[in-house]
Structure formats: structure tokens, C-alpha cells
Model the fold of this input.
Amino acid sequence: MRVGCPKEIKNHEYRVGLTPGSVREYVAHGHEVLVETGAGGGIGADDNAYRAAGAAIAATAADVFAKSDMIVKVKEPQPNEWVQLREGQILYTYLHLAPDPEQTKGLIGSGVTAIAYETVTDDRGGLPLLAPMSEVAGRLSIQAGATALQKANGGRGVLLGGVPGVPPGKVTVLGGGVVGLHAARMAAGLGADVTIIDRSIPRLRQLDDLFGGRIHTRYSTVEALEEECFSADIIVGAVLIPGAAAPKLVTREMLSGMKKGAVLVDVAIDQGGCFETSHATTHADPTYEIDGVIHYCVANMPGAVPVTSAHALNNATLHYGLQLADKGLKALVDDQHLRNGLNIHKGRITNRAVAEALGYEMSEPKSVLAA
Done:
């Protein structure tokens, strides 16, 4: 199979779908790899590094899309990319379709087989291709929030760790999953007063044991949300419903009860965001203010640290990518967890959460693959 890797074109996206190390693995499996010139520049991998790994270098993205059987990316295809996709081609990348009807329509029209990293599962019920970027984003959320909290950036002017004689800043984390865990670790490490809110009592018990009393945990109710958000300096939105749009936990009305200059960091923005007032921003212009509250809603947070995040992502995606290259669509038939990543096939929506969010009829993956 010929595997193609175009350069990412989303605003300030420096990650790359295939590192030179991953290219070597595909080549070792007997596949051809075509990489757009400059694709690895953001991680310090030049064209010569890809040539040394066995890749051919394409002059343009158009060459990559036209000549490849499978496209491996990081972020969802942009409008001028999805028009280059075609039936019989495999797209393997993050998609986040539920809040993005235009992209969904474009991919349906292309006829491509689109596999979303964020809905591939594992034996433990986890999302192994989403987890590494959730770890990065969770940790970055505290760095970003602490920066936005500085007075010169519009924030309250609070140091998260405090100093002797002055209390630390307060961080509220909505959701105790992978993002929430890593956000709490970073915030607690800086000396902040941290509370995690979640609806799973077993998960709250687990978090309580993990942190050994260094953070607070609360069961999620409207009252708990209001109390914690109104007293927080930073609120991290870390709620995930796999494949579906994120629930809006913080309403516009609640902003009036928050501290002026408090910061909302919406890590769920790829799935539509979990604050009612969220809209996607970029690394070029990451924040905006509503009712005195600073919003940080960058849709590709891990793109800020591409050396770390591109390698972490490739570590997770390589195994399934090789299955797809080795077997083609048979890999989806053989592996239920990889099949759970199938979101669109030949114009059909094959993920229930996406279909329900956007009002499409859902087609069973096994049925469309058999057809």
C-alpha cells in the first residue's frame, strides 16, 4: 500500500502524522510512504530525515492525496483537503465530527473511508489513540490557564502556588478522566488548591486514592458545579462523551457569579466545548473575554508542543496504522476496536454518536463493510 502524509495546514499546527521512525516501520512492512516536503519541520525532521527512513518526498499536498491509498494526518481535513479525498481511499486521523457538520458533509461526499483516532477503543474500554493527546492537553491546560491568569494577560493576577502567608490559587477540574487527571497533577504540583468534579463515584474514589488527599473530589451536581466554579481562579473543562458533542456544563448565566479575571480552559472544544460561551480559538489568538471571564479555547492545544505530542501520538497510532496498511479494510473486519474508529464509509455514517449529534441515519459498520 502507498501511505501518504501531507503537511498539517491548520493554524499553528506543528505536529505531523508520521515521524521518520514511523515511516521506517511502514517501509519495513513492505509499504511505500509519500511525505509532503516540509511536513516534519515542526518537530525538527527535515526531508532528508524522511528520505533516510525510506520515504519519497512529494512537492505538494495534492501529489500526496492523488497518489496515496491511505492518508495519515493529525488534525481533521480542512475544506481544501477533503475535496481531494476519494472513494477507495482510507483517511486515518482525528476527525471530531459531532460538532462539525460541514466537515461531515464533505467527507460523506468524498466517498472516503474515514477512521477517527478519537473513537478507536481497547479491551479496557479506553480510547488509546486519544489518551496521549489528552495527557498532553491536560498538562498544557494548567500552563495555559496560569499564563492567562496573569494580570497583563487580562486575568486576576493570581499565582497558582501562592507564597508563604498568601493562599494559593484555586483550580476546578470538570471531569476526572485522562485530561482531568493530568490537569490536576500539574495544578497540584504547582501548589494550587485543586478540586475534581465527576459523576462517577468509583472514579472519585480512585482519584482520591491516587492523590492521597492532596486534592478535593466532589460529585457533580448543579449546586457543586456552581459552588466550585464561583470560587475558582481557573476552571478546566475536561468532559468527554466518546464521539458525541460535549455537554454544556457552565452556562452564560453562571459567568456573572464567577470572579472577574477568572480563566476558563475548554479542553473539550474539539467536541464543541463544555462551556456555553466557548468557541474555538487558535494559538495565534488563544483567548477572549466574556462578562469579565477569560476563555482559552484552542482547538489543537498539543500542537504547541509538537516534538512531545507528535511522538506520543505516533507511538499510539502506529500499531493500528500498520494493520490498515497490511490488510486494508479487512483490518476493520478483523479488529472490533479498530472498527469502532470507523466514522464514515462510502457516504455512510457508521458511528452512532456522530449520527445522533448531526441527525443522520446510522449504518452498522459490519454491514457497510460487507457490502
Summary: The longest strand covers residues 193-198. The chain has a mean pLDDT of 96. DSSP finds 15 helices and 15 strands in the chain.
